[in-house]
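Whiteboard transcription, Tuesday session. T.W. wrote the structure tokens on the left side:
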């Protein structure tokens, strides 16, 4: 695997995914399925487990914090914003701090955050607001959701970058170990 997660695969000149070994991509290339890595059952289990927990958390929050018709859907807003924050932290932790981790991103990113946050819930909530004549709330909800999600992801990434450097991170930054 390249020494830096943002390095390009020597075989392809493409960025290397930190969850996929470059050797796996090259070994499993076929004319019908270029760049197709072998399925890792452990990563699949990580995604399923994370998705199960993320879905339960989302369901509990949305079920116990119901939104009245015509009102700002706070429960959906909060879980999606929290998920954006967690993803912001996760991206930096996986790429800069724990570059060798193969299961953290599938477990927390694709699994937990994928089930916790869904754009479809934003679209459905906004559609219901607009359909029932709550145009101002619907427009505000879309704008505030987008801004909060971006801000939360940036805050999460910023806080993760403030973590003390690990030996692997110092090597990536060009420092001595």
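and on the right, the sequence the group agreed on:
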């Amino acid at each position: 695997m390249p020494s830096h997660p943002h390095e390009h695969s020597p075989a392809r000149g493409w960025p290397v995914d930190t969850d996929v070994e470059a050797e796996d991509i090259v070994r499993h290339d076929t004319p019908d399925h270029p760049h197709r890595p072998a399925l890792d059952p452990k990563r699949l289990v990580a995604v399923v487990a994370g998705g199960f927990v993320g879905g339960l958390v989302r369901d509990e929050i949305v079920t116990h914090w119901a939104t009245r018709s015509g009102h700002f859907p706070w429960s959906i807003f909060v879980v999606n914003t929290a998920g954006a924050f967690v993803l912001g932290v996760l991206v930096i932790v996986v790429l800069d701090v724990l570059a060798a981790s193969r299961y953290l991103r599938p477990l927390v990113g694709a699994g937990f955050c994928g089930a916790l946050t869904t754009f479809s819930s934003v679209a459905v909530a906004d559609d219901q607001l607009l359909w029932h004549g709550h145009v101002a709330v619907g427009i505000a909800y879309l704008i505030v959701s987008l801004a909060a999600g971006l801000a939360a992801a940036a805050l999460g990434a910023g806080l993760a970058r403030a973590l003390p450097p690990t030996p692997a991170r110092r090597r990536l930054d060009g420092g001595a170990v």
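Someone added at the bottom: Helices lie at 22-27, 41-64, 74-97, 104-116, 119-131, 135-161, 167-172.
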